[in-house]
């Protein structure tokens, strides 16, 4: 859940109960105030009626008035100094139901007799008024809440913009680009401190990366000379006729190990060159020509394993990559298809203007996606002719030239497909 969404939810959880309590409080205050006003009206009417009855000339000694709003009738008991005001429910024919009234009662003396004076004020119109006021108030509160939420969202989005900008930079950066990564200072103190810390961290990581990369390159270069010397010395020893069969066998094994080490060293150098962008990205190469060339070079290996070769090469498709990388791309994919195939298996090579697909049968299970392009995966057997870097080099070439690569395994057939352009979005790519 995004921070802005989480903040909005917390804000709603706090504001909704507060607004609800405020609404009910205002409703009760409105109701109390209206009752107070009605009580004052009743008291005022009571004073006016008493004044009127004291001055009117009544012919009858006993009289009786009765209406829903006013009632005057003879009563027994002592007169009251203060009136009694209360809420009552009375039936109203117009409404067809009992409606609330505010009622004032008082025993008063009129010309020596005691009468019960009753004054009433209907609350139904005022109740409807309160409901309307409450409805309008809720609309205003709702609009105010919506405006506050919108304002809070807009302000938060603006305030958090430097954070998201820094986050996008971090997500899109690659290790080799850390040297050019810079986070701009902002007017917000906390984000400015964060960007400063990110700048320091990026600089330190890039410096360490450059040091390790230079160490790898230097070590690989320096290893070339002693390896060549060791191989030449072993070749000289192989010419010595005085050596026993066991000694010759040991020298042969040492020579093979040195050859593997030399290939590994060469592959590491190639990876370093690709990562350092030491190849010209503007060059183009026909993969059909490269594929035919390596199929010819690997023909003996294909025949030794009695593999069935199915090639479908159409069009001299020119792919944007230098000759050396095109050779490495095709040779590694074809080499794997032969190396991990079984005797009597099949290889299928398909090339057109859109893609290069190389499939091979194999007894090996599907390669886990998280191990597909990793270097020197622990526990994965490496053959005498493999250095564990073939697919890593292929992936690095594809990444450098924005060529999507997809791996599929179905019915014992492994397929690697390199797309010249991005395929449709429904395709699933191994990364």
Automatic annotation (TrEMBL):
Enzyme class: transferase
Organism: Chitinophaga agrisoli
Name recorded for this polypeptide: histidine kinase
Enzyme Commission code(s) on record: 2.7.13.3
Key words, A-Z: Kinase, Membrane, Phosphoprotein, Transferase, Transmembrane, Transmembrane helix
Entry annotated with the keyword Transferase: yes
Spans traversing the lipid bilayer: 7-27, 129-155
One GO MF term attached to the UniProt entry: phosphorelay sensor kinase activity
Histidine kinase domain span: 218-425
Lineage of producing organism: Bacteria, Pseudomonadati, Bacteroidota, Chitinophagia, Chitinophagales
């Amino acid at each position: 859940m995004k921070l802005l969404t989480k903040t909005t939810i917390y804000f709603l959880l706090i504001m909704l109960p507060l607004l609800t309590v405020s609404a009910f409080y205002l409703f009760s205050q409105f109701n109390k105030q209206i009752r107070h006003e009605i009580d004052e009206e009743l008291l005022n009417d009571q004073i006016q009626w008493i004044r009127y009855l004291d001055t009117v000339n009544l012919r009858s000694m006993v009289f009786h008035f009765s209406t829903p709003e006013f009632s005057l009738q003879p009563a027994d008991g002592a007169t009251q100094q203060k009136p009694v005001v209360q809420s009552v429910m009375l039936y109203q024919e117009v409404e067809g139901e009992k409606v609330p009234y505010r009622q004032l009662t008082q025993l008063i003396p009129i010309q020596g007799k005691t009468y019960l004076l009753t004054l009433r004020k209907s609350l139904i119109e005022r109740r409807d008024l309160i409901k309307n006021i409450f409805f309008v108030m809720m609309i205003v509160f709702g609009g105010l809440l919506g405006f506050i939420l919108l304002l809070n969202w807009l302000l938060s989005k603006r305030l958090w913009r430097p954070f998201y900008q820094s986050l996008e930079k971090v997500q899109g950066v690659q290790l080799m680009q850390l040297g050019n990564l810079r986070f701009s200072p902002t007017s917000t103190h906390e984000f400015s401190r964060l960007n400063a810390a990110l700048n320091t961290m990026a600089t330190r990581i890039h410096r360490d990366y450059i040091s390790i990369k230079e160490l790898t390159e230097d070590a690989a270069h320096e290893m070339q000379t002693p390896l060549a010397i060791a191989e030449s010395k072993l070749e000289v020893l192989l010419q010595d006729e005085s050596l026993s069969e066991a000694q010759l066998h040991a020298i042969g094994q040492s020579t093979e190990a040195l050859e593997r080490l030399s290939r590994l060293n060469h592959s590491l150098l190639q990876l370093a060159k690709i990562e350092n962008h030491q190849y010209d990205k503007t060059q183009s190469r026909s993969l059909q020509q490269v594929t035919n060339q390596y199929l010819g070079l690997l023909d003996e290996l294909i025949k030794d394993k009695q593999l069935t070769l199915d090639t479908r090469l159409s069009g001299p498709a020119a792919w944007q990559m230098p000759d050396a990388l095109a050779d490495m791309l095709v040779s590694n994919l074809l080499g794997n298809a032969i190396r991990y195939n079984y005797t009597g298996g099949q290889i299928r090579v398909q090339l057109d203007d859109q893609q290069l697909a190389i499939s091979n049968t194999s007894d090996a299970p599907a390669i886990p996606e998280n191990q597909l392009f990793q270097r020197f995966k622990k526990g994965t057997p490496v053959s005498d002719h493999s250095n564990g870097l073939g697919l890593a080099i292929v992936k690095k070439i594809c990444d450098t030239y924005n060529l999507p690569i997809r791996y599929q395994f179905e019915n014992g057939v492994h397929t690697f497909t390199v797309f010249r352009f991005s395929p449709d979005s429904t395709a699933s790519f191994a990364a």
